[in-house]
């Protein structure tokens, strides 16, 4: 079983990575200075991809922050819905999950 301190460190590391990535995405989105319509259209397509990545990152950040809060409250590793212990293998794959396998389905 992975110690809670190790899980917390993994979550904090991933959170820092996501925050850094979102900062880079924001900087890229703010840096465009297209000269003509064709360049602007190409940049806009790229922006849509970056925005999607940003939204995905924000969602994961929220889930990690919630998991860190559950750790602080001593509730990490237990299903938020039924209260059962979440399988170690599930936490290995989704360390921020608030649900056991049964409740997640």
UniProtKB/TrEMBL annotation:
The entry's keywords: Metal-binding, Methyltransferase, Transferase, Zinc, Zinc-finger
Pfam families on file: DksA-like_N (PF21173), zf-dskA_traR (PF01258)
ZnF dksA C4-type span: 79-103
Composition bias, Basic and acidic residues: 29-44
Span list, region Disordered: 29-49
SUPFAM superfamilies: Glucocorticoid receptor-like (DNA-binding domain) (SSF57716)
Signal peptide residue numbers: none
An annotated Gene Ontology molecular function: methyltransferase activity
Domain Zinc finger DksA/TraR C4-type: 74-105
Classification via InterPro entries: DksA-like_N (IPR048487), Znf_DskA_TraR (IPR000962)
DnaK suppressor protein-like N-terminal domain: residues covered: 9-71
One BP annotation, GO: methylation
Name by which UniProt lists this protein: Dimethylmenaquinone methyltransferase
Organism: Gemmobacter lanyuensis
